Amino acid sequence: MARTEDYTHDGPSALREAPVSTILDAVEQAARGDRVTVRRLFEALGSGSFLPLMMVPALAVVSPLSGIPGFSSFCGLAIALVAGQMVIGKRHLWAPGWLMRREIRAKRARNAVDWLRRPARWLEWAARPRLRFLVTPPLVKMLQALCLLAGLSMPFLELVPFSSSLLGAAVVTLSVAMLARDGLLALIGLAPFVAAGAVIAGVLG
């Protein structure tokens, strides 16, 4: 049986002021030496709120790391793992051992962090408490379900250029919106899903 780990969900309050930068700092700190494991990244986030843990693979798939074959699929499955447990209301995040043991070159992780700094600052500048009813129960469950859908879609979109990165950006935006209680930002994060729905409707129509 695969080894598993539990990570406590303490809520998003500690990360509301600078959610993306806090996560990037943690990743940069963990990415010392030659290689970094997913386990080390998870542990670097401390007690491990669900939203920050979901943002790590979402940010990775937005970065140049998405060019690694199979990496977008792996990140999509990781996003789906976290989002799915949020949807069903689990209090502790379960993660399989094979996921925790996955590793990448630390230099690639540090380069990805540097690349993400500027969009992170813009996203945090834009986020503020607005339209809170869109990011609190029961509507917040819809946002979590969309993150789950985005993660599950990524393995099927591996060969479609930029599609996984677009979905990853949507997951990051929705995560920041939920952390910052920003319903307007959540609406912006819905845009890729609306666009995808319109394309599918056009094809089927």
UniProtKB/TrEMBL annotation:
InterPro entries: ExoD
Keyword terms of this UniProt record: Membrane, Transmembrane, Transmembrane helix
Coiled-coil segments on the chain, per record: none
Transmembrane segment boundaries: 41-62, 68-88, 131-153, 159-177, 184-204
Organism listed in the record: Rhodovulum kholense
Protein name per its UniProtKB record: Exopolysaccharide synthesis protein ExoD
